[in-house]
């Protein structure tokens, strides 16, 4: 009995590791189909903005990607983004719904995305 439970958990939790929000956002920004939700302003500087009308769609997709049982809200997701500023990965820009990847994070994401 216990062996079966262990095997099932291994199967569901194996695969890719924990997805980070900044990596998910970079994928969304690089997907032209998601430009109506989140877009570069400009990409060269690593600055991006959420659409005021579709920001909740990004949050919902993030919640699904994480495997959350409860729906993710934009408020919860933006709290996580603010926490990134403490670790120096993403910073809030003084414009509404606008953030900026740190140079180091952006370089890392671009390297990962090329592979």
From TrEMBL:
SMART domains for the chain: ETS (SM00413)
Subunit details: Binds DNA as a monomer.
Record protein name field: Transcription factor Spi-C
Keyword Transcription: yes
Family: Belongs to the ETS family.
Top-rank taxon: Eukaryota
Signal peptide positions (record): none
Role according to the record: Controls the development of red pulp macrophages required for red blood cells recycling and iron homeostasis. Transcription factor that binds to the PU-box, a purine-rich DNA sequence (5'-GAGGA[AT]-3') that can act as a lymphoid-specific enhancer. Regulates VCAM1 gene expression.
A Pfam family it matches: Ets
């Amino acid at each position: 009995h216990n062996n079966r439970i262990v095997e099932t958990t291994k199967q569901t939790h194996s695969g890719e590791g924990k997805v980070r929000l900044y990596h998910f956002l970079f994928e969304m920004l690089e997907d032209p189909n998601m430009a109506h939700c989140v877009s570069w302003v400009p990409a060269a500087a690593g600055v991006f903005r959420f659409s005021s009308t579709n920001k909740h769609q990004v949050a919902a997709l993030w919640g699904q990607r994480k495997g959350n049982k409860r729906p993710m809200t934009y408020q919860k997701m933006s709290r996580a983004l603010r926490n990134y500023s403490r670790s120096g990965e993403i910073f809030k820009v003084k414009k509404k719904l606008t953030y900026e990847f740190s140079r180091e994070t952006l370089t890392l994401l671009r390297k990962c995305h090329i592979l």
